[in-house]
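mind reviewing this fold:
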Amino acid sequence: MSEATAALPAPNPESLSLTEAITEFCADMKIRNLRPTIIKDHRAELLRYERWLWPERLNWRTVTYRQLKGYISGKLDKSYQWLRNGICTLRVFYAWAVEEGYLSSSPAAGFRTPKQPKPLPRSLAEAAQMLSYGKRTVYRNSTGGPLSPSSLWKSFKSAREAAELPDMRFHDLRHTAATLMLAAGEPIAAVSAVLGHSSPAITARVYAHALEESKATAIAGLSTRLRRG
């Protein structure tokens, strides 16, 4: 056998990079007649995994199950299929690495395929879709579909002009309502609940000016009552 056709020496397991391992893994999966689309998906997932390892300064050969959970947890807000494919790829890849002698055990062996969530009843699914922030609005138009922002703005502009109010944003109504409630002496906890803030502290910080005005009004009222008394 000539030097040109001589077999290349086996890579040193201790120095095998993840990039080299991915290339060898995909080539081996091709030999095993795995569908090209599946190999492509495995490769794409492993490249995402490699990009995650780099800033974390982790080595693919010494990464632990706990550390892998950090990678998987980043997929929890994705779709079920995204999460399932990620776990499947890691399990198959690390099982292959053990089989090839690059590792003594798989850090992904403890992962289980997540159960697919059951679909909601149609009525609940529609409600969840409508209430989903940034995707649907709570109010519907005359045909039953979602109310478009342009239609809402036109209606608001007409009402504002009819009331002879100055130019303002639709969102300014929220601030106006909060300021008026605080000026009327409503408890800050109640105003916070109406606004949907996670705590009254946020409301107090955002509407500090209104609270100061309310304090001044309360003190002035107390002074008036004392003088009358």
Notes: The radius of gyration is 31 Å. Residues 130 and 136 are 5 Å apart (CA to CA). Residues 126-167 form one domain.
